[in-house]
Design goal:
- The protein has 131 residues and is α+β, with helices and mostly antiparallel strands.
- It is built from 3 helices and 7 strands.
- The chain starts with a helix and ends in a 5-residue tail after the last helix.
Amino acid sequence: MKKLMTLVLALIFVFGLVGCSANKVDKDVSVFKTENITRITFHTLPSGGQGFEVPNEYLAEITTWLGSFTVDKKADKALAPGSNSISVEIEYADGTSVKNGLSTTKIDGSTFYMKSEPAPECYFKILELPE
């Protein structure tokens, strides 16, 4: 009976570890794919969704900054006010595009906040915001 109980407890422990690792989010990987980007456009809610296309002269700098976005903590059901009021649309050489807010991202149905390096000066110029 002790052996059976030990086996059951061991199986519960193993399946518990497998379940935890299956839901683990890699927080060191960039949220945005930055290879083969051809165009980047920012959209803001205060401007009614008007797009602010990144000029070619700033494309490399903004691409590098977008590459610094990684997953942070899991978001509560109610997001902080202003979350994702600015979004980015990235177009790639193969014709695909992605659009995502700059505050959160969804992974396997769960919402996570993102963190990044500070925005470069050109970002504020592109959006015509005070630095």
